[in-house]
Amino acid sequence: MATRLVVDPITRIEGHLRIEAELDADNTITAAYSSGTMVRGIEIILEGRDPRDAWAFAQRACGVCTTVHSFASIRSVEDALDIQIPHAANLIRNLMIAQQYVHDHVMHFYHLHALDWVDIVNALQADPAETSAIQQSISTWKNSSPGYFADIQKKVQSIVDSGQLSIFANAYWGHPAYKLPPAVNLLAVAHYLEALDWQSHVTKIHTIFGGKNPHPNFVVGGVPMPIDLNSDTALNAERLSIISDSIDRIIEFVDQVYLPDVLAIAPNYLEYASIGEGLGNFLTWGELPGDDNRDTSKFLVPRTLIVNRDLTTITEPDPRDFERMQEFITHSWYEYADGDNAGLHPWDGETKFNYTGPQPPYEELNVDGKYSWLKAPRWNGMPVEVGPLARVLALYATGHAQTVDLVDATLKALDAPLGAVFSTLGRTAARAIESKVFADSLRTTYDELIAAIKAGDTRTFNNDRWEPRSWPSEARGFGFMEAPRGALGHWIVIKNRKIENYQMVVPTTWNASPRDGNGQAGAYEASLLNHKLAKPEWPLEILRTIHSFDPCMACAIHMVDATGESVAEVATGMNVCMT
Amino acid sequence: MSGRHVVLGIGNILNRDEGLGVRALDLLEERVGVVPDVEYVDGGVMGLTLLPLVEECDHLLVLDAIDAGAEPGELIEMSGDEIRLFSGVKMSEHQITFQEVLGLAFIRDKLPPHLHLIGAQPASLSIGLEISDRVRSTLSPIVVRAAAVLRDWGFEVPDGLKGSDRGEGSRSTTTTADPSDGPIPPTWADSRVPSRLGPA
Predict the structure, then answer these.
(1) Between B44, B67, B196, which is nearest A560 by CB?
(2) The predicted structure's pLDDT at residue B95
(3) Looking at residues A349-366, what average pLDDT do you find?
(4) Residues 112 to 131 of B: which have CB under 8 A from any A CB?
(5) Distance (Å, whole) CA A200 – CA A195
(6) Given a cut of 90, is residue B21 above it in pLDDT?
(7) Rounded to an integer, what distance in angstroms lies between the CA atom of residue A382 and that of residue A390?
(8) Peptide bond into A539 cis (omega under 30)
(9) pTM, whole model, 2 decimals?
(10) Is the dihedral of CA B48, B50, B55, B58 positive or negative?
(11) Nearest-CA neighbor of A458 among A31, A5, A91?
């Protein structure tokens, strides 16, 4: 069939994340500016609505983040109204959350980030027998025969020969910064394709618990699906068995494919273990709670603040702290009643647009003024990084035994010091490491759920505060969620039973933040310093570090593009500003 | 035919006309009702997770906003290989378009044998739940065409359309499993947010 492939039509239509980088004569980045070029105004849509409905809007903000926004939203309402969810409901939520991490991380790695390191076309040069030997040396994964990899190679060849396709036709193939041997490239290509099959099996947890596909249902006060082993419509024995099988597949893929692949690829790119760190400040809101969302001592991932790489002095940030948790707009296209240099706690947050940028299309943003639709969140005035690296450091610093073992083993395998974790490669490895932690937590959480059911503890919904007349006339709540890409917070103010104010501070707002009034760069901006670009017109090095954060940028516009645009015209989806 | 037969509405209802596919799906469900063997699926903004569904389809009728450089509100249809498939370098995993999902199905030899797209050129993608006037008047024609396509494919589509021609699907999400104490599912058709502005 006649198909054509276009790179990044979305940025052409509306714009998402834009990086402007200044290069010196040596093509090394001396300054970088990160801009979100599309506004997200869900805060405005939520004003005046029933707080119990907020999740249904919040989950539409993003196609990858539906679950995380839903959970953050219902937790914010539960916090505001002092609702405790039942034990079984919390276990079910934790299963959904842990599944989401692994699913998201695997798809991010194979579908987006691996292509920064893996040259797919180069896989055609591989000897399938050599790939087979590598596969058999790194894990016991079943698909490991020379014949299997020869078939994958034929598949890639047929796609390349068709001359029309997609991922295989128009990335930076042949870029000098690709360093994997052909046999490892072939291995990764095989797993890229396998991951697509794998995801159809592992999403069953959400389909079952959410009761609806593709958008699961959520409910303030618990989970929407009752437990009744003998009912066709409830969580029954058959469905539990499907979930258990799904957990097995998740654990198997992480153990036998994802982690070994990261360890097989990383040694070829060790220069990325010393660049790409950024800030050295890390924040987590914490995740996988016990039954009480306010009891942070029972979280699997603790709520922590790490400053300046110091893993010995960690503190617990309080999201209710009006003085420390603030958002700034000096360089953001908003205005505050108290002026451009004010900092506002999200409960007092304002969403008033003030676009001062150029009319698109434009060549450069004025980075001395406002230059992003993202606000600049700061903790106690400091920019911080959120995400897998922050979580793994939180677990490591607090002595979580499995994490300590995984981090130490990874460093040993790469012959790298602990300081290497503060890097692009460290971030990518952290994502794989925490996938292992979360995958294993699925099994223990599942066992706890079965034990609860056997003990007759099957209540999944607390309706004590369902009726608005039972609510106080004013209430404030904080809903946390460690989204796969980092700490997410929803702050809600309820007044007269309606939403008075709703503010989300999403992980990418922390990480992709523009500068603040003190000129402090955000995490992306800081992380790109000193990247030397082999071919500036193909800024693969920038993509590697930005992708290592797993950006979520205004992904909600998905319109079909029928206008036609050649691959060459939109080659990178990035602006590199040559000055 | 052993696969699924799906009408898939996609788009973001928070960005006005971007959500026209989901609105058209609601209207189709309301005015045409049950068509034996055909499922109505609200794909919303889901990206890559729609791939398994797409690959299971024998017939896939997609309703979506379409940028064809046409007049706002203009009805646009494409079939089979008229629909461009693509993929490429992205800043974010979240930039998966539905065409990319189709592109992946294609390289996996699992593109639905019967694939049709109906939509309209959007007039406004700014923030808000309300469809623009120009696109709202196209929703009914989209429903009429969708019914005709299903009929052409051999499905038993009831004759005539139900209800009034309000030109906009009403939305009521339903839970397939009610919690024991019966919380009320959310709705968003009841209150329309006035079209507040996005960026200039």
Answers:
(1) B67
(2) 53
(3) 83
(4) 117, 119, 122, 125, 127-129
(5) 9
(6) yes
(7) 15
(8) no
(9) 0.88
(10) negative
(11) A91
